[in-house]
Amino acid sequence: MRCSYYDAATCRSCAWLERPYAEQLAAKQQQVARLVPGVREWLPPVASAEAGYRNKAKMVVGGTVDAPVLGVLDELGRTVDLRECPLHTPGLRAALAELAGFVTRARLEPYDVATRRGELKYLLVTQSPDDELMVRFVCRSTEPLARLRKHLPALLAALPVRVASLNVQPVHAAVLEGAREELLTEDAALPMRLGDIVLWLRPQSFFQTNTAVATALYQQARAWVDEVDPVTVWDLYCGVGGFALHCADGRRDVVGIETSQEAVASATASASRAGLTGVRFVAGDAAGFARETGRAPELVVVNPPRRGIGDLAGWLEASTVRSVVYSSCNATSLARDLAVMGSLVPVRGRVLDMFPQTAHAETLVLLERR
Question: What positions carry a catalytic annotation?
């Protein structure tokens, strides 16, 4: 992949960009296998498109109303324009160009970090597999709300926007979004079609950055779950329910646990729209739910943040759970958690390249009790 920003040293986030992609993939496989020893069988890694794979853009907004800059902050706090980043899908790059013009037309004053003046802090844009968009304007207050609503019809005519909202983030801090969300469209959720499952993504709900590799991740997990064929399944840290919805087959009792109320609402809506039975979602702490629920399931899926599952590893080790499917974006914390769960043997693993051009990867491991 060629990138003019990288060549000009404007952005060096893609630290592995100069390495041939086949070499990147082999290095990730070796790195994960070294950090996570004892896996009986490693399946071939899942490759990604080298460019155009990012389905979401998280853009700092800087510059002026008449000349907005969409990108990232440099070490001096200046906004560097990255609207043509080749990692973004072509649809996102086209949308960012149109949104820059919308900032001017709606007179959305970019927030200036140094002076703490202005309104618009971030533009958060997500593209679905059907090429529809969710656009979120992160502002200091609701002051721009009337102008956003006034100019929204022109934006809807120019772009395939399914969901638009204003998010209020009043704090002067590197916080991406606030708790308050004001919908601007009738639709409140973006359908993310992954094979035979559709996830209805609401604002403030997390979804994987790479749609094609996320699809492969869920399908691989479902294949392993189907092999084990459990009657009861917990999906802990379930997010918008990707794993739980792929595991639900009408026969199993599947429960998804997630702290985010918005994510739980997304997952519940997805199950309802799909007509899936035997699956439900609860807002709460994963470890707390495990400790407080009397009877453990046959299989647990965990997809934690980078820090890993923490105390939940000890609970799983002491429990009667006979199988675990662990999805990790950090092989170091994965290895630490597996060391605690000595009775659960990693029988199969797979590296999925969710983040080409970087050292990061997703790892999926199937554990079986001795």
Answer: 329
